[in-house]
Amino acid sequence: MPDQHFAEIVAFAHEAGHLKHTPRTGWLLGGVRNGESVAEHSFRVGVLAYVIAACEGADPERAATLGLFHDLPETRIGDVPSVGKKYITTTSPHEIVTDQTAGLPEDLRARIIAAVDEHESAKTPAATPESQCSRDADKLEALLQAREYQREGYTQLDEWVRSSAEAMTTATGKALAAAALDVSPGEWWGSFARAVGRG
Amino acid sequence: MPDQHFAEIVAFAHEAGHLKHTPRTGWLLGGVRNGESVAEHSFRVGVLAYVIAACEGADPERAATLGLFHDLPETRIGDVPSVGKKYITTTSPHEIVTDQTAGLPEDLRARIIAAVDEHESAKTPAATPESQCSRDADKLEALLQAREYQREGYTQLDEWVRSSAEAMTTATGKALAAAALDVSPGEWWGSFARAVGRG
Amino acid sequence: MPDQHFAEIVAFAHEAGHLKHTPRTGWLLGGVRNGESVAEHSFRVGVLAYVIAACEGADPERAATLGLFHDLPETRIGDVPSVGKKYITTTSPHEIVTDQTAGLPEDLRARIIAAVDEHESAKTPAATPESQCSRDADKLEALLQAREYQREGYTQLDEWVRSSAEAMTTATGKALAAAALDVSPGEWWGSFARAVGRG
Amino acid sequence: MPDQHFAEIVAFAHEAGHLKHTPRTGWLLGGVRNGESVAEHSFRVGVLAYVIAACEGADPERAATLGLFHDLPETRIGDVPSVGKKYITTTSPHEIVTDQTAGLPEDLRARIIAAVDEHESAKTPAATPESQCSRDADKLEALLQAREYQREGYTQLDEWVRSSAEAMTTATGKALAAAALDVSPGEWWGSFARAVGRG
Amino acid sequence: MPDQHFAEIVAFAHEAGHLKHTPRTGWLLGGVRNGESVAEHSFRVGVLAYVIAACEGADPERAATLGLFHDLPETRIGDVPSVGKKYITTTSPHEIVTDQTAGLPEDLRARIIAAVDEHESAKTPAATPESQCSRDADKLEALLQAREYQREGYTQLDEWVRSSAEAMTTATGKALAAAALDVSPGEWWGSFARAVGRG
Amino acid sequence: MPDQHFAEIVAFAHEAGHLKHTPRTGWLLGGVRNGESVAEHSFRVGVLAYVIAACEGADPERAATLGLFHDLPETRIGDVPSVGKKYITTTSPHEIVTDQTAGLPEDLRARIIAAVDEHESAKTPAATPESQCSRDADKLEALLQAREYQREGYTQLDEWVRSSAEAMTTATGKALAAAALDVSPGEWWGSFARAVGRG
Prior knowledge:
Six copies of one chain form a homohexamer. Chain A has 199 residues and is mostly helical. Helix content of chain A is 64%, strand content 2%. Chain A contains eleven helices and one strand, in the order αααααβαααααα. Chain A has helices at 3-17, 25-29, 38-56, 60-69, 74-77, 93-100, 106-120, 129-151, 158-166, 171-180, 187-196; one strand spanning 88-90. Chains in contact: A-B, A-C, A-D, A-E, B-C, B-E, B-F, C-D, C-F, D-E, D-F, E-F. At the A-B interface, α1, α3, α4, α7 and α8 of A face α1, α3, α4, α7 and α8 of B. β1 (88-90) of chain D pairs antiparallel with β1 (88-90) of chain F.
């Protein structure tokens, strides 16, 4: 591989790192001033896509890959706020990721573009099972995060919980969204702490 | 799947989300007070593992999965600081992830434990190519992040850049670490901004 | 005035307050992770517009008003990042502010729309002197802020200083941009502290 | 204008920018640890002063100017906490702003001093209608901000809402404070989001 | 004293300063994302140890000293999260502080080691009254902080209040923990503000 | 002790905790936007006072106590910025701490007032050795913190280093200030990390 390719991959990796500094704008509307980054969201979307796909009998690693890469275009357009959708038109994720990967080795570039394209296909007739798992993971992640912020005291996030739950399309996604309404965000360490003492 | 499984998956997902609040302790030592979370780190480790594996001819989606899950045990032990290694003994990641996934459906549990185990195998004779890609991604991510913090003005991070570069084991990892020393963290938007104007 | 008008004004004021939580995205690109809000920027644009207009012989209070309101549409579209301009099309500020003020008393609504429109006219043949002062203030504010961040150690903001300086159109704006390159951001308290002791 | 004047204006603008880093101390008492800056407060005071003045038949641009500049002296004395008033004596805003503007061109200096003086006159027999609008805006801004923080979960801010409402002197200010008790801080985007979908 | 001793003391003081950047991990579990540092905690532990010892008839300055130094070993091992105790074994505070003070003058070193040792003795038959005051102060500080965070809206901290209260061993500690359940965290400024007006 | 005393002590402890939210204003002037709290400063002042007193042959626990309590009055007046001293007059720390401790048991109250008074005596003929150690610790702490911020990239803090060093009065304080100019803030973990590997 020519040296230039390595430099281009490094530049691409720095671009991906910008998602660490890209705020999820929905939380700002809900009053969460120091909310998560798109990178943090994408991390758990990847995890959830893996989990949902495993339950659905789809390919978990493929689904995790879709979840991991699905917000990559936001390095260039940010997380367009829902209140802005009436006023903003964006080019397709396909077009943006095609630009983002312009310097990469052809094979790698094609793979990343394909991953973004497949995630975007979730709402079309061409949807793959993995794209549906990844999209459900995207929505479920927001639902879980909303509940975690509610635990911190935020009072105006019910709409996020509700609309995220309604967006589920897979059987697993629907069941998880329903279960999430009954599981405390602190359940994992609460039960654990009770078992081992808190000292 | 019994209902209890969905509740357990939700609790597991909240636990994974705790990595959004788990600081990477190395940066605190280097003077970066509001540094990234383990979730942000894991996001880019997943992306880099994918990229390195694609260049190495390994399975990119498997490598991305290893990268995504590799720090999951840190929800329970935190990111043990390097200066603490003389004083702290931790049980194996295998043991922790076995506890973390105790309530999950068996098949899913086995998959996640296997992913953490495989990542950990990277320094052993049993290392798979994907584990080596994931481990190199872990180190390369720290190198890139150190350079991004240096751009912000931090003056004591040279050691992170150097030791991360030296830890590379794959040919691609070595080439990327070398290239990273010459690529500005802002190159991606600088060249882009020059092309389209900054307005 | 009907009661509903007061409720609508309150809702409008809460919307304006959202600019306190709207990050200036340019700084994120430059590596400033906890940068200023659009509200903080708008505050100093108002002050600078006043000052420039006073020096230019224009109406300072009109210019300050333009500066204060000019980013109001960003409550709905955010601060579109410069790297996104290739990919994002937004409706005009006029259209957005028309929506934002829909519930206000007619006279007040017309005034606010006119203020945003006048600021936007700065680059057109219909430019008023006050709109040119307000636009120069917008650019000069970014220049001063870039220099303040450079003082904190940020190393990649030269481009912001340069491009902001080049955007000046009024004689006062040009002279201030030139002077700014020689004045330390801490000059005001440094000279002051020397005069009264720091004790 | 002599070159020195431009340098002095730049130093003055950097001083005004310090309000971006000056915390509003009242919120700290109320438990809001990462609260707004004085610059953010001043931004919305300017907007509200404009709005109130328009409703009151006063000069909106004059009122906005008073609101914008009214806290300028806080670059030198900070936002003196209410609990400190028994223990702290400060010189008048007039004296401080006279020092702050010492290097500015005479005409500009006189204008800025006059703006601060006029705002301060609000509680005296010399009060102008615009000073009363600006002062009411100052109090109303705190009321709205308190309600926005309450939305985030803060539980001890009732006193801010109550005492701010009681401080109103104009008919518009009183009507807005009354209306504010019934309007949700998220009403603006809630109704908007319902209209266009949240997708 | 040889020059090297001064350099070693400075290095030791920088190490102590690292507690300003060491997060209290318990709050992260409870959902408090931007919580206090170990240094902030230690400050109030010192104050409370002084107060409790004065009430108990023990030596307040000795107790304050124990409280001030008790978490010093956390510069090297961090604040081990309660959920990690099953998985983490740490060497004794005695061993760590012995390393931390290796370069200090012998007399000073012995004093600091003795202070950490005495604090640690609180749960042993060798407990001194001052060590019990310092340990109660450590727990009471957490209780008060939990209540302060509850005031900010956090909803899952009851367990911290309860378990801290139960850990008290001195009569004063028990009485203060009981009293704390009835005193609002804002009582001090509320009553004060009412007395002098809030204007 | 009557129950009311316990409630008063709790309120006093909450007041002391407010120093966790009280910013050190000097750093804001120097461009450090998210700087330390007065509580964090006080923690290390206590530690340094102890160390200096031990080297000076004074009572280390007394000196630590003075350092711990010396900024207690700042809960009511904040950290008055150096640039404000021309404009602000404050009542004496004695008077403030007398109010702060009004509800405490008499003996405890007298002790705390005496500690603040003794610290304040450092610049008077009545200075005790411990008060001089505590005052030097206060200045040295600022010097060390300035150097730690410089490590993060801040460029305008030389004045803090210089003026703090000049303020030293004890032989130990002078020697430590001189040594501090040659010791890297990261020396403690750098040498340590080299010894045990950074892995």
